[in-house]
């Protein structure tokens, strides 16, 4: 007779002290900066430690015999979460920045595969003013060293989908009228600062209709919003699993459209097997891949506490409520606007990260970035509160993560 598996205990309620204790967070730490570095449950950390012991039991066997199969096994549930049936078009990498850099460093080969001419300043990479700073650094490096041009489109917040699309289309038309060609667009699915949802489906469709290659920096997306890559149809897509999906740092999933898999390369050249792009990303010298192997443990934990839809609904409602509480205390406001699709009261503008205006006092105005940095450090050291301050639109905001 087959032995029955024990029924797991009921999960603590979302938002309860019991659930909080299942994470390794300091009980006194006010963890409102989850979006920056994430947090893994104790059960997932334990699973990682066991994976490390399993590897150490026979490193040769793991590295030489089971390595590729184990990574693919761990990658499959993530692929399915993205709407894919197999792992053929996705790989693990350490973070979203690495995935975007892979696209930038391979751009010459990518354009050649697309039948484009050699790079010139007339061939431009497009990004938005809300682009993540490290990604902007990668774009600047590529334009400086590989001969491409760049255009940074100013996007005020809040902005409606219609206005955003019109602004982008106007830029494309203007560049073409001047003899320039936008060859690649890099844009967020959920921007870092301000932490708002970007209408990637309609943006991607617009770019594709104009012959622009698309790279979505979805660092914050998986675990915050539903994703279906079959619907989005981007050329490149990368999302961190360690921010919102409870996987240990650092772990991300990187999607590459089939037509570019023969020309994409990891920024660090290590493994060299012709046309095996997946192996090239999975074997970057000898590295610790134990975080990659924890995806099932993380997804099982999320399913146990309610599942993806319940977590996303809870964290969004918490962001709406918590953001308004903080704004009321400060006497300011939450960054709201028009959400995806129909016009709303603005709460659909963000998922689990909410942006609250900092009072525009003389101290803030005079102190600027130095003052805000010192305030952030003071809050961490003395109050054990994590926040992400930033400047946007000439004023300061704090981004608060609901988790």
From TrEMBL:
PANTHER family per the UniProt record, alphabetical: HERCYNYLCYSTEINE SULFOXIDE LYASE (PTHR43092:SF2), L-CYSTEINE DESULFHYDRASE (PTHR43092)
Keyword Metal-binding carried by entry: no
Name listed for the protein in its UniProt record: Aminotransferase class V domain-containing protein
Gene source species: Chytriomyces confervae
Region forming the signal peptide: none
Gene3D superfamilies: Type I PLP-dependent aspartate aminotransferase-like (Major domain)
Record-annotated Aminotransferase class V domain positions: 180-333
Domain of life: Eukaryota
UniProt keyword list: Pyridoxal phosphate
């Amino acid at each position: 007779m087959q032995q029955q598996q024990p029924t797991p205990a009921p999960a603590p309620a979302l938002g309860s002290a019991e659930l909080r204790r299942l994470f390794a967070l300091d009980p006194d730490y006010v963890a409102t900066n989850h979006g920056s570095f994430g947090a893994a449950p104790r059960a997932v950390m334990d699973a990682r430690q066991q994976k490390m012991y399993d590897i150490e039991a026979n490193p040769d066997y793991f590295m030489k015999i089971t390595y590729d199969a184990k990574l693919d096994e761990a990658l499959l549930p993530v692929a399915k979460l993205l709407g894919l049936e197999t792992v053929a078009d996705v790989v693990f990498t350490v973070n979203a920045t690495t995935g975007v850099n892979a696209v930038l460093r391979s751009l010459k080969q990518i354009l050649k595969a697309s039948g484009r001419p050699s790079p010139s300043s007339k061939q431009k990479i497009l990004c938005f003013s809300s682009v993540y700073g490290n990604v902007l650094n990668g774009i600047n490096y590529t334009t400086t060293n590989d001969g491409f041009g760049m255009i940074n489109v100013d996007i005020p917040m809040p902005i409606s989908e219609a206005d955003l699309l019109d602004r982008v289309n106007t830029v494309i038309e203007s560049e073409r009228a001047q003899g320039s060609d936008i060859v690649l667009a890099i844009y967020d699915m959920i921007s870092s600062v301000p932490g708002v949802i970007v209408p990637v489906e309609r943006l991607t469709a617009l770019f594709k209709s104009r012959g622009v290659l698309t790279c979505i920096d979805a660092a914050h997306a998986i675990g915050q919003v539903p994703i279906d890559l079959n619907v989005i149809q981007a050329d490149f897509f990368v999302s961190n699993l360690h921010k919102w999906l409870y996987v240990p740092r650092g772990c991300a999933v990187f999607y590459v459209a089939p037509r570019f898999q023969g020309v994409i390369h990891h920024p660090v050249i290590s493994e060299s097997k012709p046309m095996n792009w997946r192996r090239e990303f999975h074997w970057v010298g000898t590295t610790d891949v134990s975080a990659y192997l924890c995806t099932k443990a993380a997804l099982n934990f999320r399913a146990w506490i309610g599942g993806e839809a319940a977590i996303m609904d809870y964290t969004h409602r918490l962001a709406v409520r918590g953001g308004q509480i903080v704004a009321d205390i400060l006497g300011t406001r939450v960054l709201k606007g028009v959400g995806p699709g129909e016009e709303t009261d603005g709460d659909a503008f963000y998922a689990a990260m909410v942006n609250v205006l900092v009072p525009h006092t003389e101290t803030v105005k005079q102190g600027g970035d130095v003052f805000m940095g010192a305030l952030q450090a003071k809050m961490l050291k003395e109050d054990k509160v994590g926040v992400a301050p930033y400047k946007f639109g000439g004023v300061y905001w704090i981004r608060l993560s609901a988790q």
